[in-house]
Amino acid sequence: MSGSESEKQLLHLVFGGELKNLGGTEFRDLDDLDIVGVYPNYRTAHAAWKAKAQASVDNAHMRYFVVHLHRLLDPEAKGGSE
């Protein structure tokens, strides 16, 4: 565990699902959401998001998102923009 021990943990959630319409963010079926996972930093979350987004490119209504959980857990923390 060389570099990861000193790296500050900034949790990110990656999830996605089929949207009701292309211009919005409302999902067709909440029971069918794809919870990809929770990641310790933006770099790994982005890699997971990118893989899922590319795998679902044939479905125009399918969207994946990265949520910065660390900002929700500690909204007053300074720094850690990613």
What is this structure, in a nutshell?
With 82 residues, this protein is of the alpha+beta class. It has helices spanning 42-55, 69-73, and strands spanning 12-18, 34-39, 62-68. It is built from two helices and three strands.
What is this structure's SSE topology?
Blueprint: E1 12-18, E2 34-39, H1 42-55, E3 62-68, H2 69-73
Antiparallel strand pairs: 1-2, 1-3
Walk me through what this model shows.
About 25% of the residues lie in helices and about 25% in strands. The chain is an alpha+beta fold and about 80 residues long. A 3-stranded antiparallel beta sheet has the order 2-1-3. The protein is globular. The protein starts with 11 loop residues before the first strand and ends in a 9-residue tail after the last helix. The longest helix has 14 residues, at about 40-55. The mean pLDDT is about 90. The protein has 2 helices and 3 strands; from the N terminus they run ββαβα.
